[in-house]
Write a structure and sequence with these properties.
The chain has 454 residues and is α/β, with parallel strands linked by helices. It folds into two domains: 54-139, Glutaredoxin; 152-399, Rossmann fold (3-Layer(aba) Sandwich), CATH 3.40.50. It contains eleven helices and 17 strands. Strands 6-5-7-8-17-16-14 form a seven-stranded mixed β-sheet, with helices on one face.
Amino acid sequence: MKIDRKLHQQIRLQNFLFTLLFLVLIGLLGWLSQRYFTEWDWTAAGRHSLSEASRRTLDTLKHPIRITVYARENNELRQRIRDLLTPYQHYKQDLEVVFVNPDLHPDKVRELGITLDGELVIEYQGRREKIHDLSEQGLTNALLRLAQGQELKIVFLQGHGERNPLGDANFDLGQFGHTLQQRGMAVETWNLGKQSSLPENTTLLVIASPKVPYLPGEVAVIKDYLKKGGNLLWLTEPGTPKGLQALAKFLEIRFLPGVIVDTTAGVLGIDDPTFVVIAQYPVNPLTRDFDMLTLYPQAKALESIEENTFSAAPFLQTQPRSWTETGPVTGEIRFDPDQGEKEGPLTLGIILTRMTEKDPENKASQQRIVIIGDGDFLSNSYLGNGGNLDLGLNVIQWLSHNDQLIDIPAKTNPDTRLELSDLTLALIALVFLVLLPLTLFGCGMLIWWRRRRA
């Protein structure tokens, strides 16, 4: 076929239009890829996809989320965090992630209480949650707490030498109180000597190690609050209950005399035997999946005497090699049952629950009370030991009915290891290392020989 000038121009025009349309198509695909996102996770068990629980949680968060990652210039750690956050960003377009080197912002790190490389600070509508659990379960549970939105009002009683939730003294709970505020909770002090009733919107009442006895009228106010279904955290110390004997009777508990002596502390290099170390916890909703060691200086034991009104369950228990020491803790001490001392395991913390009718719709609700025979573990002096802070936060979250956490199972690889016998391995080696190369070589030689003859 003879190509004349006119046909040649048509062919060139067709090629130009094809190239132009092809470039336009590529541009449109690039534009669409920026506006819309689609991915397919073909991995076993969907390891790179969000669980249905995480997607439901994100659906409840209608406003923008900001996640600040405090991680040093460690490519491996930062990449691990990116792998965790990327599916969340793909599902929720207004989720912003910012990486910050904590070494360059020491003031901000101190203000937020950042202690670990790779901690995440999540902000949503003025509320803030800090986590260091780099897993989908940890992140989704933090988002769920932020999504609940209601303000939790924690009221600390004052006026009897109690620990101040915002104080800076070693005895006080300032660091713990500021952590509660950072998590969006309102922390307030209340003196029953000046104000004879508690705030109506109290989420949780805290009695933190009083030094001066309460008056009968003040105890009556506390009991009235509990009769209406209020939640309570009671931190007490060795010695008398400081005028709260009637409260202990109402809650159906009894405090054992003396101070707990725990020989476990000596194994860990702690010279003071009155330091109680707890590493294992009974199964209960408060310490679910909690496996960190906690430390309790100068603690006393307690026990439930009956369960007519409240259901009681221990959540802090000492080792069997502990006991209640009723004498001076000096020199060589030993267990003496003749002095009324009781041998471990001893209950250091107890949970009390009962069903009440307290909401406007007259629906049954669970009243929650926690009593711990030590307040030092949350003080400024000892809060940083082991998992003391984490346990304290667990207690507050559970007492505030803010414990509807999601259990997302870890996504693991299936068993991809192939077990082969020695005979099978030998046969595979024979085929791929000997027979297959010889076959290819023979085919090549045959083709070469036939071409030479042709």
